[in-house]
Write a structure and sequence with these properties.
mainly alpha; 4 helices; 59% helix
Length: 99
């Protein structure tokens, strides 16, 4: 059964390599059809939909990660550290028990 440009993937992309290929190709070319063709050529299976490719691209731009996590752990750690430094700055270095 030949694959057409209009083919849709009934399953979500699972492999990180597949998502990264889509994100890198889309960043370079800015064409979903070309990304789908490159995907089919490399993995020999149905390509992801336009919506899936754009969602992966948006997620990578917003979080810097293609993981399923909503926010990378490191980002939360830095925000907590930033908050604690701000508290110290506001209190002008006074001793704070809970920090």
């Amino acid at each position: 059964m030949p694959l057409s440009d209009a083919s849709v993937c009934s399953e979500k992309m699972a492999a990180p390599g597949e998502k990264s290929l889509c994100v890198l190709e889309y960043q370079t070319i800015k064409s979903v059809v070309t990304v789908q063709r490159a995907f089919r050529a490399k993995y020999a299976k149905d390509s992801p939909t336009l919506k899936t490719i754009l969602a992966s691209y948006k997620q990578f731009n917003e979080t810097g990660c293609l993981c399923k996590q909503k926010a990378p752990t490191l980002t939360r750690v830095w925000k907590e550290l930033e908050y604690r430094i701000d508290v110290c700055r506001v209190t002008r270095g006074a001793h704070i028990e809970y920090l």
